[in-house]
Write a structure and sequence with these properties.
Blueprint: H1 3-22, E1 24-25, E2 31-32, E3 47-48, E4 57-60, E5 78-83, H2 85-94, E6 102-110, E7 120-122, E8 125-127, E9 130-141, E10 152-156, E11 166-167, H3 176-182
Antiparallel strand pairs: 1-2, 3-11, 4-5, 5-6, 6-9, 7-8, 9-10
């Protein structure tokens, strides 16, 4: 009987067509495997909180705890950093962050310490352990929109929970100046993220 063969052929053709339509063209005309999620703004120009960031590519989680900074760390939380997957695919191929790249930094406090340095002892040993979520920061690459801040826009969606639904771009002296002065590549702290340190 040839019916099963015809059905299998039809299914294979349908899958091939679905895959082809799921791809979107990249800047250089080649098909890329993942459609990009690009920044979304309100009519007044505020950035909308990015969707589904927890499904993005995790790149690292730096920590500068209060206990090691005289109780006054500028950024006392774990910084759980994600990059939008479509932008990451382009970065892997080109070594450059494309326009529209989004970095999402979810802030997470440490569990209160038991020792003078702010550390505590858990089953795995002495250290610093993630606690409550504490808002988020987002960075967006747009060389024209954010020319005054090195081509990147910096946004804070609260330093507490819940995260704000929208945020205004921060002035240069609040975020950008530090990235511009000390970040390794294109104002991104790639020195802390082996996945990005090309």
């Amino acid at each position: 009987m040839r019916t099963p063969l015809l059905i299998a052929t039809a299914i294979s053709s349908a899958l091939a067509m679905t895959t082809a339509h799921a791809q979107s063209p990249s800047d250089n005309g080649n098909a890329q495997a993942r459609e990009r999620y690009l920044p979304e703004y309100t009519k007044s120009g505020e950035l909308l909180l990015p969707k589904n960031f927890n499904e993005w590519i995790f790149v690292g989680s730096p920590l500068t705890p209060n206990g090691l900074n005289d109780g006054k760390a500028n950024f006392p939380e774990f910084h759980n950093v994600y990059i939008e997957p479509g932008s990451y695919e382009i970065y892997k191929k080109t070594g450059e962050f494309p326009e529209g790249t989004i970095f999402f930094k979810e802030l997470q406090l440490t569990i209160p310490g038991e020792n003078p340095d702010g550390s505590r002892t858990e089953a795995s040993g002495r250290g610093y352990f993630p606690g409550k979520l504490n808002g988020a920061d987002v960075t967006v690459k747009d060389s024209k929109r954010y020319a005054d801040t090195g081509g990147w826009g910096y946004f804070n969606f609260n330093h507490h929970e819940p995260k704000a639904a929208t945020a205004k771009a921060k002035p240069k002296e609040e975020c950008a100046f530090c990235h511009m002065a000390s970040a390794k590549k294109d104002d991104v702290w790639t020195q802390f993220y082996p996945l990005l340190d090309k």
